[in-house]
Design brief:
Blueprint lengths: L7 H11 L7 H8 L8 H13 L4 E3 L7 E3 L6 E5 L5 E4 L5 H9 L11 E4 L2 H5 L2 H5 L1
Parallel strand pairs: 3-5
Antiparallel strand pairs: 1-2, 3-4
Amino acid sequence: MRTLKYSRQREFIKNSLAKRCDHPTADMLYTSIRKEFPNISLGTVYRNLNLLAEIGEIQKLNFGGGADHFDARTAPHYHFICKCCHQVSDLPMAPLGEITTLAQRYYGGKIDGHSTTFYGICELCVQSDKAEQVF
């Protein structure tokens, strides 16, 4: 793993992400960071998020909807995406390691882990009229 020269902006970006649980896009994080770092550029936020993901300090998530999302939590865990409001959240359940073991039986190579994303309607959307619009 490569080591990086300390950057106050990078540290601020990483800490800002760590305080969030909504898995923001770079644009979302940039908007919130500008309140305390008015001179930071969107390019700086993008570069540093990608660099932090590359060295394994954060996760870069792509759910096929366009923009990448970022997660400060690097331990294995599952995500839930609301088909109505598109909110990404962590599922509070332990990862099922036996899935990787089972998959290994059917694959000749070496499986190191797995990624699972669940889709549906979040609790807030179920309680609102928005859920009706999805179906």
